[in-house]
Automatic annotation (TrEMBL):
Name of this chain's protein: Glutamate decarboxylase
Example GO BP: L-glutamate catabolic process
NCBIfam families: Glu-decarb-GAD
Reactions the enzyme catalyzes: L-glutamate + H(+) = 4-aminobutanoate + CO2
Phylogenetic classification of the source organism: Bacteria, Bacillati, Actinomycetota, Actinomycetes, Propionibacteriales
GO cellular component labels: cytosol
Length: 468
C-alpha cells in the first residue's frame, strides 16, 4: 500500500522538477517543469506529450504482464471506436440515448448467455468495473434481506455475508463500507475453494447471501456453485432459512459459457439471484467496464433504483458511479458483434490451451508443484517444491523474471495458508503459444541461475507482488 509517508519519502528522494531534453523544448519554452506544483505557464502540446509519454514508458510492456486479469490488447477497429466515443457520458441517457440502448442490449445478451429464465424481461447495468458490479449485487442482497425481516417484524441489525477467504478484496470493501459482517470460510489443502463444506456453521437468520466465485483471484479455480446450492438446500430443509447466492463471475462469467457450456453455475441454479462479470477481463475490452445482471425484476429491489431528472429527461440509474465514458460499453457491443458465440469460444479455448501448455511444462520442472492447472479459467498457480532449495524462493524468481520484462507475482495464500507462497500466471487474449514458449525459456534460464547459487539469496525487504 502506498501511504502519505511513502509518497513524501519518494518526493524527498527525487528532484522536484522535470528537466526537458533540449531537443524536446521549443524556443521560448521553459527547460524545467514542476512535478508537484501547478505549472505557472503553458507548454506546447508536443512537449507535454513527450513528457507524459516518457513517464508512462517506465511502466513497462502491459502485454508481458502475466499478473493482471485486465485486457491488454484490442484490434485497430476497437481502438478507433474507443477514440470516437471517449467524449460520451454513459450516465447521460437523455443526451446519448443510443449508447444507453446499446448498454441495455449488452446486459440482455449476458442474461441470455447466463440462462436467465426470461432474459428480455430482467434487469442489469454496466459499471466501471466488476468491483462496483459486485457491490451492487451485495447491496441488492442486503436490501432484500432487510425487507423480508421487516415484514416479519424482526430486527435488521447485524447482517452477514458468507464467502471464501480467497475472495477478491472488493468484497472486503463491500462488507466494510456497507456495514455487513463478513463470515469467511477458510480454504485449506483439503478444500481449496468454498465448496459447501461446513457451510451450516456460517449461515444463520442474519445471512444476506453467499458469494460463489467463478475463478478465484488467487488461483483461477471455480467454486462449485451447484454444490454450494445443494448445501444451502439442506440448510433450508433443516432450518427454514432460504439463503440466496450471488456469483462473482468477474473472470469465469465470460469463460464458462464458452469453454464449459454444460457446467451449471449461472441462473440454471435456482438459488443464484445475481451475477457480475468484468467486461475488461475475459469480456475482452480495455478497462474499465463491469456488468451485473439479476435473475428477474423481483431480484433487484425497486427502492435501489434512482429516477432523476437530468438534462431534461427522466433517468433511472442504480450504479454507484455517475459520469463515466460510454466508450467501453460500445466496445463491449463491438466485441459481442465481432465474435459472437463461436468467436468467443475460439478465443477463450485458445487462452485455456496456452494455460494448459504452460502449466504442463512448469509441472515437469523439479523446482515446482502446481496448485491448479488452468483448466477452469486460464489462470494457474504453483509453489516451490518442498525441499528443493534453501537458497532462493519465489520472490527471488519473480525479481529475476522482471529483469526480462515478465511480471509474474509471488504472494502468500490467504490467512489460513500464510506459510504457502505461490506464483500465478494469467493467460489473456494476445498471449500466444510463441510468447508462452519465450516465457518458458526465460523461466528455465532463471531457475537454472538460482539453482546454481552456492549460498542463500538475501530475503530482507521482500514483499508480496499481489495486491488485487
Amino acid at each position: 500500500m502506498v501511504t502519505n509517508s511513502t509518497r513524501a519519502a519518494h518526493r524527498a528522494e527525487e528532484p522536484g522538477v522535470v528537466e526537458l531534453n533540449p531537443i524536446f523544448a521549443r524556443p521560448g519554452e521553459a527547460t524545467e517543469l514542476p512535478k508537484y506544483d501547478f505549472p505557472p505557464g503553458e507548454s506546447l502540446p508536443e512537449t507535454a506529450y513527450q513528457i507524459v509519454h516518457d513517464e508512462a514508458m517506465l511502466d513497462g510492456n502491459a502485454r508481458l504482464n502475466l499478473a493482471t486479469f485486465v485486457g491488454t490488447w484490442m484490434d485497430d477497429h476497437a481502438v478507433r471506436l474507443m477514440s470516437e466515443a471517449a467524449d460520451k457520458n454513459m450516465i447521460d441517457k437523455d443526451e446519448y440515448p443510443q449508447t444507453a440502448a446499446v448498454e441495455t442490449r449488452c446486459w440482455t445478451m449476458l442474461a441470455d448467455l447466463w440462462h436467465a429464465p426470461d432474459h428480455e424481461h430482467t434487469i442489469g447495468t454496466s459499471t466501471i468495473g466488476s468491483s462496483e458490479a459486485a457491490m451492487l449485487g451485495g447491496l441488492a442482497l442486503k436490501r432484500r434481506w432487510q425487507t423480508a425481516r421487516r415484514a416479519e417484524g424482526k430486527s435488521t441489525d447485524r447482517p452477514n455475508l458468507v464467502l471464501s477467504t480467497a475472495v477478491q478484496v472488493c468484497w472486503e470493501k463491500f462488507c466494510n463500507y456497507f456495514e455487513v459482517e463478513a463470515r469467511y470460510v477458510p480454504i485449506s489443502l483439503e478444500h481449496k475453494v468454498l465448496d459447501g463444506h461446513d457451510l451450516e456453521s456460517y449461515v444463520d437468520e442474519n445471512t444476506i447471501g453467499v458469494v460463489a466465485i467463478m475463478g478465484v483471484t488467487y488461483t483461477g479455480m471455480y467454486e462449485p456453485v451447484t454444490q454450494i446450492a445443494e448445501a444451502l438446500d439442506r440448510i433450508q430443509e433443516s432450518t427454514g432459512l432460504d439463503v440466496k447466492i450471488h456469483v462473482d463471475g468477474a473472470s469465469g462469467g465470460m469463460i464458462a459459457p464458452f469453454v464449459q457450456p454444460d457446467l451449471a453455475w449461472d441462473f440454471r441454479v435456482e438459488r443464484v439471484v445475481s451475477i457480475n462479470t468484468s467486461g475488461h477481463k475475459y469480456g475482452l475490452v480495455y478497462p474499465g467496464l463491469g456488468w451485473v445482471v439479476w435473475r428477474d425484476l423481483e431480484s433487484l429491489p425497486e427502492e435501489l433504483i434512482f429516477r432523476v431528472s437530468y438534462l431534461g429527461g427522466d433517468m433511472p440509474t442504480f450504479a454507484l458511479n455517475f459520469s463515466r465514458p460510454g466508450s467501453q460499453v460500445l466496445l463491449q457491443y463491438y466485441m459481442f458483434l465481432r465474435l459472437g458465440r463461436t468467436g468467443y469460444t475460439a478465443v477463450q479455448e485458445n487462452s485455456r490451451n496456452v494455460a494448459l501448455f504452460l502449466s504442463g511444462e512448469i509441472a515437469k520442472m523439479p523446482a515446482f508443484e502446481l496448485w491448479n492447472d488452468g483448466s477452469d479459467i486460464p489462470v494457474f498457480a504453483w509453489a516451490l517444491r518442498e525441499g528443493h532449495t534453501q537458497n532462493w524462493n519465489l520472490y527471488h524468481l519473480s525479481d529475476r523474471l522482471r529483469t526480462k520484462g515478465w511480471l509474474v507475482p509471488a504472494y502468500p495464500m490467504p490467512d489460513d495458508l500464510p506459510e504457502l507462497t505461490v506464483q500465478r500466471i494469467v493467460v489473456r487474449n494476445g498471449f500466444s503459444h510463441d510468447l508462452a514458449a519465450a516465457f518458458l525459456a526465460d523461466l528455465r534460464d532463471e531457475v537454472a541461475y538460482l539453482d546454481a547459487l552456492t549460498g542463500p539469496m538475501p530475503t530482507e525487504g521482500q514483499r508480496s507482488g499481489f495486491h488485487h
